[in-house]
Amino acid sequence: MRNRPVAEGDVLTVDDLKAYFMVDGYGITREVRAVDGATLRVRKGEVYGLAGESGSGKTTLVKAIAGAIRPPLKIVDGSVRYQFGGETVDIYDKSVNHQSLRWRHLSYIMQGSMSVLNPVRRVRRSFLDFAYRHMNMPKAQFWEAVETHLKKLQLDPAILDAYPHQLSGGMRQRTTIALATVCKPEFIIADEPTTALDVIVQRDVLKMIKEVQRQQDSSIVFVTHDMSVHATIADRIGIVYAGRIVEEGPTTQLFRDPQHPYTVHLISSLPRIGDKSARTSLPGRPPNLADPPSGCRFHPRCPLAIDRCRKEAPPLEGRHGENRVACWRAGEAKIA
Ligand SMILES: Nc1ncnc2c1ncn2[C@@H]1O[C@H](COP(=O)(O)OP(=O)(O)OP(=O)(O)O)[C@@H](O)[C@H]1O
């Protein structure tokens, strides 16, 4: 395992992280290499977006970053380190108490997380169950802090007395985000928080996440397959393909000048106002991660693949500015 020094201003430092599903069948164990050597940093106050098709490994990567690992998922190598209150916390150090990190320092809004709101209890009860013990204050003061937080996020404190089923999908998601951020965590991980919502409601939820980030100066890792959402919210984006980050860069640079053919494809497939021509889709699907392709994992689908791509995996390297890309033919593909 290679641990690079934590750079100043970085809140999250992930080095060469490998997280595999160990799947048993017919007496043999197969490794599904869902995260296979991820290296990234997230700075204080930054929104870092993770993009990529379904099955590329985004959820597994954020689970590994959050320390939310359950069998059959296993950390095979690498490290995940946070800077919390001036201290370095290695999330896989056995002495680290995850319970004490959760909510106060690190909040993880999982895919489908609206279900954290207990369906048979009023919303108030979920705040009490999850947040109260992390806030270290008398109850009256706690409820005051909850109401202030809700108001700051333009939510009516009356939602505390509602049952989850009485709220619309958008309100439920906004309530879940308010719950996840009431303890003012330094780091927030949000996995597809807007995917099930229609576009208008999606916009409100994104606005709210930005507002939380601005008020609390927290860092966010935001997962979605939807590049147009990344364009709205992310400061930097990491493109994930088959368990690896294949390109990373500041959002404007990545959209203006993508270097990896896969990033070029993701951007080219976005609908554009006034353009009635059909968007081309990339043939094929992401590979089976129990038996990934040799060399560059994208080579079977890549229109630019050469022999070297089939044999050698390209490293993720600085290209220009802050951009990093893992491709032997970086910069050659053009947006359609
Ligand atoms: N419990 C599991 N056992 C075995 N393999 C799994 C398990 N969960 C996920 N995988 C595999 O791990 C890989 C990465 O899945 P992951 O859910 O992280 O991708 P994703 O990019 O988040 O996709 P989605 O957006 O659909 O959630 C996929 O190949 C998937 O089939």
UniProtKB/TrEMBL annotation:
GO molecular function, one term: ATP hydrolysis activity
SUPFAM superfamilies hit by this protein: P-loop containing nucleoside triphosphate hydrolases
UniProt lineage: Bacteria, Pseudomonadati, Pseudomonadota, Alphaproteobacteria, Rhodobacterales
Keyword Nucleotide-binding annotated: yes
A Pfam family per the record: oligo_HPY
Region (Disordered): 275-294
Name of this protein: ABC transporter ATP-binding protein
One GO term of the biological process aspect: peptide transport
Protein keywords: ATP-binding, Nucleotide-binding, Transport
One GO cellular component term noted in the UniProt record for this chain: plasma membrane
Record's subcellular location: Cell inner membrane
Gene3D superfamilies: P-loop containing nucleotide triphosphate hydrolases
